[in-house]
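Subject: Protein record for review, amino acid sequence with backbone structure tokens
Why sent: The fold of this protein is of interest and is recorded here as tokens.
Notation: Tokens come from a learned vocabulary of local backbone shapes, not from coordinates.
Attached in line: The record itself begins immediately under this heading.
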Amino acid sequence: MDVKFNIKGMIYGIFLIIFILAGFIILPKMFHEDVKAVDYIVVQRDSIPDKILNMMDDYIDQERALATIIDGKVYVIVTRGQNEEYGIDVEKINLQDKEGKQVMTVEAVYKQKEDAYPFVVLETNMKSLPDKIELNQKYSGENKTK
């Protein structure tokens, strides 16, 4: 039995396999946003740094998320604003690059007042402040309106 190899066909086949594999590796990276979860711990009320407590008077009436660096640690503060019917809790924090800027997205959950706090202070594992912070809110429980 005489077996003939078509070298030209084998080279085209190898290039085709490499092209297909590269497509499976490169294409998803082009269309996938690189979102990183930020690790954090909730700071207990008696452990909140005094600098944060002193500045809370300026922000407690505003519904927002902000960040600060104190002693080399990045803290994220989330306030509920004037919505006194609910307390606030943080579900997750994500960090991603948008148009060359580092954007932090804080996912806050409004809960029943008894189950949450008027503001939350979180200590993160970040080394620097983000360029922008976005606050996304959702409601937990029966009442879904503000």
